[in-house]
Amino acid sequence: MATVNGEVEGAEPDEEAEEEVQTGSLVSQSLPHEYHEEALEFDVESFHLDGAPLGDRGDLDEDDKFLSLVDEGNWETLELEGTVTIHEDTVEEVFPFNEWDETPGRLALVKENPLAMTRDRHILADSPLNGGSHEFTLCINRDDHRGRVKIKPYLTRTEKGGSSGSKHASKVGARVADGLSWIIRLDERDDGGSLLMPIIEDFSDYDSFPNENHIHYLSLEAPRNPQLYLNREHPQVVEVLKNTGSTGGPPRLRDVLYDYIEHSVWTQLLMQTAHDTSPDTGEPEYGWQEDVLDIFLDDLYPDLDEDEAAIQLAEDVRSHVDIPDLVQRIERAVHQHYNIPSDTTNLIEEAIQSDD
Fold first, then answer.
1. Distance in angstroms (rounded) separating the CA atoms of residues 261 and 243
2. Better pLDDT: 302 or 248
3. CATH code (residue 71)
4. What's the pTM value of the predicted model, to 2 decimals?
5. Domain of life, per the record (predicted)?
6. C-alpha distances in angstroms, 269 versus 72, 200, 223?
């Protein structure tokens, strides 16, 4: 069994190159080479807290690949054991036939913890890569992590390949396949857990994020824990959004940018909430969706009481006839919570005064 832990191993020269390689567009369909999403089977077969089986501790959802330990205190180490499986047909799709006998591939689990600003890679199998199941043990030390930990398997190249007219990746470190991720929630965020408190990341580091032209991205990959990200690859924009002042040009610009971002985010959250709300009971699936309903139901359906409004929202999103009207309702409801014309006017006036 391959054993990996929270320590980052020393980087070899080709590993350093792997970190530097980018695969272009982050949408797999537009990658310049063959890429298979969710082709690696990532199965966690057991969890142990401080050496003891998880049992009834924590909130485990194996279907959603989610474990919450928010309500569990006084533990030091979470240990995960399981397997990552590579099927032969995946290898044959993402590597050329002349590399099938000795495949220059590397299988790794990538562990990301944005609040602790860590991103570790744990190698399970190296070149020459063999298909089949690869066992692992992964330890998460409580003192070294905060908030949300994401664990995802990747298959990458380890050697430079031929590039002339080939549909296959040729660069060292190029990702060629991945699997579904597990999410481990350790605690609530120190900022209060607001849905709109962003995490700052380089979008080009993540295959599931939009490309580098995007300023923000709302991840609904784990629907029970939506997360807003800002793209560090736009440093001037990020600096403005991090501004804490109350007067002057940068704070005015910050307010306008956040209005734009939050308008988009709330619209997506409302649509997700509508889809996840029961048309029979009006009950949403996740806790955060109750907050969304509390904020917007009165604006969406002012003539209905709370329970009736939630049921109506769930029914409307399931009706092709009512979808256009629902989208307009959501746009109006979200818009009422922002003063975009006023913030924009203040920014324009600030710019005019600066020119005088």
1. 15
2. 302
3. 2.70.50
4. 0.51
5. Archaea
6. 28, 20, 10
